[in-house]
């Protein structure tokens, strides 16, 4: 396994890219209302990244092996869609939950972050899934420090989510990130403490748990990208890009509009 370690100058570049990705979500937030289409959100994001930020939307034309080029600039995954939903002309409706996943390339560096949005008034169950998934992501983040292992992160996320009666998607995971969108290592959102790669300063990776209200099984849809829950239960995801520092972690994808950091991450 070759994990590229980032220098202080590299991390400066990643900090800028990460903040810009988060600021795209800040910009979109007031627009996420009943009646708007995800295609309209995609256009707002694309134009902001290109014209205001001087960046590149990493998803557009992204083509991992075995995939067709991704056709849009952001991913929008609604309700039972787990991830990689493609923006389209269907309006969001009251009570939908939607994940918006933004990846910005700036000066060659990638910043990758996503948030959940509740459209209008959501059900108690939908809001609870979004809130638990947010806390699950943070329970993983706070494990990050030199000497910890990737399995510590996955275990913290998995035990918390499963104790709430939810399930963890296994087929997709967090990833190293830097001058490339997806690098080593894979960051599983389940696992056993003390296993897998040891964390060292300069590693940068995402933590992006996908958590289902029902069973964990997923399937790919006919568009070749969108992943949905097999049982059509709701799914939620949050994502941050994290660097391992000398003493712990730094979240690179924060901005003025980021939701509050939970108390469990204090200090
Ligand atoms: N942003 C996603 C991630 O967190 C990847 C999306 S790939 C795309 O890794 F092509 F669908 F954009
Ligand atoms: Co990611
Ligand atoms: Co992402």
Task: Please provide a brief summary of the model.
The protein has helices spanning 8-28, 38-52, 124-141, 150-163, and strands spanning 56-57, 75-78, 81-83, 97-106, 109-118, 167-168, 174-176, 183-187, 204-207, 210-212, 218-220, 227-229, 235-237, 240-244, 249-251. With 267 residues, it is α+β, with helices and mostly antiparallel strands. A hairpin with a 2-residue loop joins strand 4 and strand 5 (109-118).
Output the structural class. Answer: alpha+beta
Q: What does the oligomeric state look like here?
A: single chain
Instruction: Tell me the name of the CATH homologous superfamily.
Output: Creatinase/methionine aminopeptidase superfamily
Rg: 17 Å
What would the average pLDDT be, to the nearest integer?
Answer: 98
CATH class term: Alpha Beta
Strand content: 15-25%
Our measurement of the CA-to-CA distance between the termini, rounded to an integer number of angstroms, reads 32 Å
Count of extended strands: 15
Tally of alpha and pi helices:
4
Please provide the ordered H/E string of secondary-structure elements.
HHEEEEEHHEEEEEEEEEE
Which stretches are poorly predicted, pLDDT < 50 over at least 5 residues? Answer: none
What can you tell me about this protein's structure?
The structure is a single chain. With 267 residues, the chain is of the alpha+beta class. It has a single domain (8-63, 72-248), classed as Creatine Amidinohydrolase (Alpha-Beta Complex), CATH 3.90.230.10. The chain is 25% helix and 24% strand. The strands form five sheets. Strands 1, 2, 4 and 5 form a four-stranded antiparallel sheet that branches. Strand 14 (240-244) and strand 15 form a beta hairpin. Helix 1 packs across helix 2 and helix 3 packs antiparallel against helix 4 (150-163). The chain is globular. The chain starts with 7 loop residues before the first helix and ends in a 16-residue tail after the last strand.
């Amino acid at each position: 396994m070759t994990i590229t370690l980032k220098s202080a100058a590299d991390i400066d570049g990643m900090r800028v890219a990460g903040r810009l990705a988060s600021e795209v979500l800040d910009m979109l937030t007031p627009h996420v209302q009943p009646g708007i289409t995800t295609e309209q959100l995609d256009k707002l994001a694309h134009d902001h990244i290109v014209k205001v930020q001087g960046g590149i939307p990493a998803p557009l034309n992204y083509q991992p092996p075995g995939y067709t080029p991704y056709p849009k600039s952001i991913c929008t995954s609604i309700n039972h869609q787990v991830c990689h939903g493609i923006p389209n002309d269907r309006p969001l409706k009251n009570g939908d939950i939607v994940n918006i996943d933004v990846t910005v390339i700036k000066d060659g560096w990638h910043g990758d972050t996503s948030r959940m949005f509740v459209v209008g008034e959501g059900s108690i169950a939908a809001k609870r899934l979004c809130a638990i998934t947010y806390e699950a992501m943070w329970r993983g983040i706070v494990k990050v420090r030199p000497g910890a292992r990737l399995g510590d992160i996955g275990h913290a996320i998995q035990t918390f989510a499963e104790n709430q009666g939810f399930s963890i998607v296994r087929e997709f995971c967090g990833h190293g990130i830097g001058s490339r969108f997806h690098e080593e290592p894979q960051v599983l959102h389940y696992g056993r403490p003390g296993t897998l790669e040891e964390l060292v300063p300069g590693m940068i990776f995402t933590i992006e748990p996908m958590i289902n209200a029902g069973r964990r099984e997923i399937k790919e849809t006919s568009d070749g990208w969108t992943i949905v829950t097999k049982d059509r239960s709701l799914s939620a995801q949050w994502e941050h890009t994290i660097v391992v520092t000398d003493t712990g972690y730094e979240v690179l994808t924060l901005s003025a509009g980021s939701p509050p950091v939970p108390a469990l991450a204090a200090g």
